Amino acid sequence: MIRAIRRGAAAIREAGEKYLLKFPSESKEEYSRRLKSSPWRPEFMDSLQTLSAKPFTKEVKLAEDATPAFEDIAQNIDGQGNNLHVFAKDVFEGAVSMGAHGILVDFPTGTGAVTLAQERAQGVRPYWVPINADDILEVTTEQRGASRVVTYLRIKESRIEKTGFEQRRVPLIREIEPGAFRVWREEKRADKTEWVLDSEGAMTLDEVPFVFFATADKEGDQYVRPPLLDLADIQIELYNALSKKEQTFTIAASPMLTANGMAAPDDDSAIETGPGRVLYAPGGEGVNASWDYIQPNAANLKEIREDIREIIEDMRRIGMQPMTQKSGNTPALAFQFDGEKSFTVLQSWALGLKDALEQAFVFTAKWMKSEGQAPSVMVHTDFAVGLYGAQEVNALLEARKEAQISQETFWDEMQRRGVLGPQFDREAEKERLAIENPPFDPEGQLDPVVA
């Protein structure tokens, strides 16, 4: 469901009755029309992107003591031109939406290099591969001393094969265990589908270089309940509510005509409702014929709009979007509390990402046979800053005015909130302030230039 929601309106409509309920007596043609006209509002994706963007308002980078070799790898972490920041953002968004994401630290095989010097001369280096949660088929771990290590991994992959002008995606399954890997290819026979061995090779590490990053509690080695699953359910609820609204407003805009006291056409067809239809109510002796319209009550339309508005508000509250004060019936304190709660959850996720990235660098160091220690990764986790908006800045200004905090502390806090940009240079600022605010000279004896 979450994967379909992330793909958008086309994927949801393609799923048909799986996500848009069909009325018991609704014809296939009527349902098809309603399916095509049902609105889609991507509230789930809006919340997901808002949550996922928070740790990346500042660059994800290596600590200052990282070696040049690791810095070079971080600039092209996946071998496809993406740096550590971009790669980490995709991993984090995948883990927030699906509950987990994997990082496989792979190494090229078949290069012919025998020694470390030969590998470096050829530019051979490890690279990271992101693995979606629903592509992880099996993970097996075991306890080795104080560490839990992966001893078996089975994942889904694919490969594009070209024949003439046609391209075909071939499903693959990769198995990895200490000492070896195998790739299986799907082949469809006349009567069945088989998996045949496509390639295999050796792996020198004594464990599978795989990092499983989860944003919720794990069940076993690989199963996780997505933290936004309830939000996804409400997204489908909103989709169905919008469909009903569209249907009701369509009928309201094109009311049905009734023919009271008139005979219906001579056919045995079922009574149909909707725009452009006529309902006949045959009358007896003494009944005056009349024409009239049937349409929804205006009060019902208002209730439908209010219901949809409440669903959207619930989604935004549960999705932790309203992180600032809100006017209206809901107390601002309640929304601030939701914001603080979301930041607490986000902080734990961001710290988990930091651990996952650092573990991936441990595997990278093993592949590189590096003598130095794997580098630390800097991930932004100071989310509570700015929760109360302008109130925080005003409080800092007042504290500085009353000399309750130093100038240096004031600058630090303003930089944390993004009020002062990354180009701010405090040493240069001190020189400017000295020029604009010369020392106080009550006797008037100092030379103006010196002052």
Question: What topology does this entry show?
Answer:
Elements: H1 2-7, H2 9-14, H3 28-37, H4 43-53, E1 61-62, H5 68-75, H6 84-98, E2 100-106, H7 116-122, E3 127-132, E4 136-144, E5 147-163, E6 166-177, E7 180-188, E8 193-202, E9 210-214, E10 218-219, E11 223-224, H8 229-253, E12 256-260, E13 278-281, E14 290-294, H9 298-318, H10 332-368, E15 377-378, H11 390-401, H12 407-416, H13 426-436
Parallel strand pairs: 12-13
Antiparallel strand pairs: 1-15, 2-3, 2-9, 4-5, 5-6, 6-7, 7-8, 10-11, 12-14
Helix pairs in contact: 4-6, 6-10, 8-9, 11-12
Structural class estimated from helices and strands: alpha+beta
Largest sheet: 5 strands, antiparallel
Number of strands: 15
Mean pLDDT: 82
The neighbouring-strand order within the major sheet is 4-5-6-7-8
Overall geometry comes to flat
Quaternary state of this entry equals single chain
Radius of gyration: 32 Å
In short:
By secondary structure, the protein is α+β, with helices and mostly antiparallel strands.
Give a verbal description of the structure.
By secondary structure, the protein is α+β, with helices and mostly antiparallel strands. It has 3 domains: 39-228 and 341-364, no CATH class; 256-294, no CATH class; 389-451, no CATH class. Helices cover 40% and strands 22% of the residues. The protein has 13 helices and 15 strands. It has helices at 2-7, 9-14, 28-37, 43-53, 68-75, 84-98, 116-122, 229-253, 298-318, 332-368, 390-401, 407-416, 426-436, and strands at 61-62, 100-106, 127-132, 136-144, 147-163, 166-177, 180-188, 193-202, 210-214, 218-219, 223-224, 256-260, 278-281, 290-294, 377-378. The protein has a 5-stranded antiparallel sheet, with no helix packed on it. A 3-stranded antiparallel sheet has the order 3-2-9. A hairpin with a 2-residue loop joins strand 6 and strand 7. The radius of gyration is 32 Å and the shape is flat. The chain starts with a helix and ends in a 15-residue tail after the last helix.
